[in-house]
Amino acid sequence: MPAVQYELAVDSWATSDRVFIRSPANDHIGSFPLPFLRKGGDNTWAYIMGVIGELVDRSSDEVWRIEDENGREMAGAEAPDAGVYTLTRQDGRIEVQWSRGPEYFRRSQAPKPEGSFSTRSDSKRSSVNQSRFRAAVIARDGTCLLTDVDYDNCTACHIVPFSRYDVYEAILGIQNEIPIFYPACGLLLRDDLHHAFDRLEFSFHVKVGHTPPVTSTLY
């Protein structure tokens, strides 16, 4: 079965109208192509604010607003229109502090923009733990979760780099016997998409109301 090819987002949305979000100091925070918002299943200001919340570091009790050029607050359930909008803070400060960003394979190393075809998270490597991990993820998923390609052309990859024990500890709230080779810590992706995922070229966004129930057992 030939690999499915997708047009890059930067190409398909290059000339489309966008929603631009800036800080009061006129720093660019993010931009959202309207076709992406309208076809992505969550065409609301609430979604944009959720993404902004991942880009900008703020305390849980801090109130922020997205305002148009007239100072009108954008309501969460409304569909956005193209234009330039400002993220304002309740305390009136104009600067923003950026969040740490995606976690890479090493705590002290930033992601490389040029990418890498390293097999650091490749479950096809010959080790007992990796082999069991791959077999368990294949048994659960069967095919690539994005393209439905058969498992023979897929990699069982870790959602969080398995070298980052500190991230697993923070997410799971445990410090001993980190279950990094449990299938719940991985997913099955087509080989080329696995490499793109490793290079942080795409990510998965959790939508409120669409999250599977969480149990205390990693299966």
Automatic annotation (TrEMBL):
<dbReference type="InterPro" id="IPR003615">
    <property type="entry name" value="HNH_nuc"/>
</dbReference>
<feature type="region of interest" description="Disordered">
    <location>
        <begin position="105"/>
        <end position="125"/>
    </location>
</feature>
<feature type="domain" description="HNH nuclease">
    <location>
        <begin position="144"/>
        <end position="205"/>
    </location>
</feature>
<dbReference type="Pfam" id="PF13391">
    <property type="entry name" value="HNH_2"/>
</dbReference>
<protein>
    <recommendedName>
        <fullName>HNH nuclease domain-containing protein</fullName>
    </recommendedName>
</protein>
